[in-house]
Amino acid sequence: xxxxxxxxxxxxxxxxxxxxxxxxxxxxxxxxxxxxxxxxxxxxxxxxxxxxxxxxxxxxxxxxxxxxxxxxxxxxxxxxxxxxxxxxxxxxxxxxxxxxxxxxxxxxxxxxxxxxxxxxxxxxxxxxxxxxxxxxxxxxxxxxxxxxxxxxxxxxxxxxxxxxxxxxxxxxxxxxxxxx
Length: 180
Known about the structure:
The chain is mainly beta and 180 residues long.
């Protein structure tokens, strides 16, 4: 895909399931690579989740009365709420990992997640779909409890230098290939 502006591959409005968030749940020791990842899709029974850009902006008005705004950076984040605890076989491995980190107060481990964003509306099965990996992301649980089901909603703050590339499919189990 390179650095040119990609075209959306759409014949109608993009469905929400064309934008998929994955978290690597492999807990791979040592050197990490995208091929060692076990990508678990997030959003099970979550009806709405959006990546927030949270732009860091500065605005000035000069002595002539003209106003200018600069965008310094984006601080990408997403909230997954609700998030029900469920068996590992039903996309629940991340819940187990985050629950254990929280239970044991190993807070530094909350900032060591690899996150994959797949844009299923950019690309195709021949050339691959656009995808980004944020290799130093933070997952922060907000609470534990609920009413009829045990919930553990969480925030994801996308961190690290993004690795741009493609995946072979949107769902399930994508294989990531970094840009050359």
